[in-house]
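Our preliminary data section would be incomplete without showing what the modeling component actually yields. Below, a chain of 80 amino acids is followed by its predicted structure, encoded as tokens that our downstream tools consume directly.
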Amino acid sequence: MSKRIRQILLGIFTGLLGCLIYLTPQGWALEEKYGLYCLFQFRGATPPPDEVMVIAIDRPSASQLELPVSPNFWPWPRNI
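Predicted structure:
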């Protein structure tokens, strides 16, 4: 068998093995844990857009605004 054919077969085998590992729950968790971390490290920090605002509403605030506290009634109206 020529060297070129062995290289091609090794590449195909490695790709198939990677796909099989990725399709298992352990492979998915491994990719999610380390893959996403590496991608975010490569990208670096990005500044948030000015038009985005994150607001946490606790039970007393929801009661004061007369909003339902139960998550079954979320999302709340955007005009709050």
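The radius of gyration is 24 Å. The mean pLDDT is 85. Preliminary results of this kind motivate Aim 1 of the renewal.
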